[in-house]
Amino acid sequence: MALDQDPGSQWTDFTAALGAALQEMPAYNDGSKLTLNEKPPESLFVGFIKDQDGLTAEIGPVPSRGAPARLAALLSPRGRALRRQWAEFGSRLTAAGWTPPQAKERWSWTQELPEPADRADYERLAAAVTRVLADELHLVPSALTYTAFQEDPLRDLQFDGLGTQRPTGFKHRGTA
User: What are φ and ψ of residue 126, in 5° steps?
Assistant: First the structure.
């Protein structure tokens, strides 16, 4: 994906590549995972987990590291403003068909795609994710990085057609 493309055509290419990647993800044993992260400051993640039962897509804020840091962040003026923004954002996600967080410790909205699913199902889910990233969050594909791996047997997965970059130095634990 060329960086000089207009954002609309970047998203068209990204959506097609994401739909294909979701369909190609293996569903062995514990499944496989694909995560898209906003480049620093990494305030957002989109995660996909695929196993024999289907695919779960998840969108939410990147969890902060450690309880004291999380508490301080939530109580700060910036933390209160972010909570309001996420509440408004969450209302729009719910209206668009995403399931709101089901537990207080989870801040992510989900969509489920049960097996068997066909190419059109994966394309619809990819389009739903693209609508959030492009229309709600005003990002471009080049603002994202991804990690992807299969759990068992453990190995990295590569989906270069996404037009996003893997984080510098990324290597999943235990991979060759």
Answer: -60, -40
